[in-house]
Amino acid sequence: MPLYDYIGTTSNGKTKKGRISAGSRHEALLQIDQKGLMIRNIREHSDSIWFKDLTIGRSIRLKDKVIFLRQFATIIKAGVTVSEALEILTDQEEKNKKLKAVIRQMSAHLNAGQTLSQAFENHPKVFSPMIVHMIRSGEGSGRLEESLDHLAVYYERRHRSRQKISTAMVYPVFILLMSAGVVLFLLTTIIPMFRTLFEGLNARLPLITRLILSVSDWIRTFWPILFISLFVIFCFIFFFLKNKSVKFWLDGAIIRLPVIGPLVYKNELSRLLWMLALLFSSSVPVIDALQSIEKITSNLAIRRSIRDTMEALDLGRSLSDAFRSAGGFPSIVCHMTAIGEKTGMLDQMLNHVARYYEDDVDQMLERMKALIEPVVIIFLAVLVGFIVMAIVIPMFQFYQQF
Fold first, then answer.
1. For residue 44, is it left (φ>0), alpha (ψ between -120 and 50) or beta?
2. Beta strand 3-9 with 38-44: parallel, antiparallel or unpaired?
3. How far apart are CA 105 and CA 86, in angstroms?
4. Domain 62-155 of CATH type 1.10.357.10
């Protein structure tokens, strides 16, 4: 169905632009007239680059989705219709042009007769299957504002969790980058200044000094090869990880790491259980809910466990037995799921487990922050001290001879 761009005037004289989907120009004019607009201009939308909205800029981030869902839920709660809510959000969104274009297209699809869940489903790169299932469930039960509110809460928690992890990693990454910069500066600028002095000593230099001088000479001579080699290695790793077998092995290895593994696994598990509880609370079928969470996790090892769970369900097993047979879920998840199945409170039990893992991840991050800071500082001190010793030791030996 073709799209039409229009410019109209409201009853109070305000200019309004938009895009609608209609079978013909006449049908488009009728739709615009129903909006109470006086039409000033209308034309069929062209996909030519000259008519496209300039959406070059930042992508649609998780924070943008959080704000969109929260505003959408608030407007719907105020009694505004879905179509009007999307138009309000289109006019209000100014920072992210890509999101503004997506909301405008959703409004056009809604005006063309599609449901809200179908409008969301038309943008799979922006909205996950979970969102589509929740919206469809809300439409069917007449509790759309509740579904949107649950989605907003979920993504707010996810955004907050991601911020905690990124904040915990900022300090050590900054220190490591600063360490690399300091070491490169010493090796390429300071160390060469002492070479002529050491050569004038006419004495055999200590092993540590000879090692540092060799490293300095190599970096200053072959630095283009060093950067090219690093670039090639990064490219090789990037394309190597495109192989599903390799990524599956790597994802499994990351989970089994001593400190990072439990943190990554519990954080991902908490996120998936929150989502599963939301879908179950909205009466989404078990298989559909598992398919939704399978698509959003990037860890192939966890994805394999979810797929094994679905295969076990196809054989007639209960969800708790399916979790247990899949082998990728802790015993507490299996036990709490079994209790939820017996009591009819499966979504609440999964919520409790998700909250338990979320609190555990927060505690692990706090402990890691407290441990990483002194370790990184000690590492920097040892590294710089090693280079300083390479300079001081031969000078100290020279002065001892007099």
1. beta
2. antiparallel
3. 10
4. no
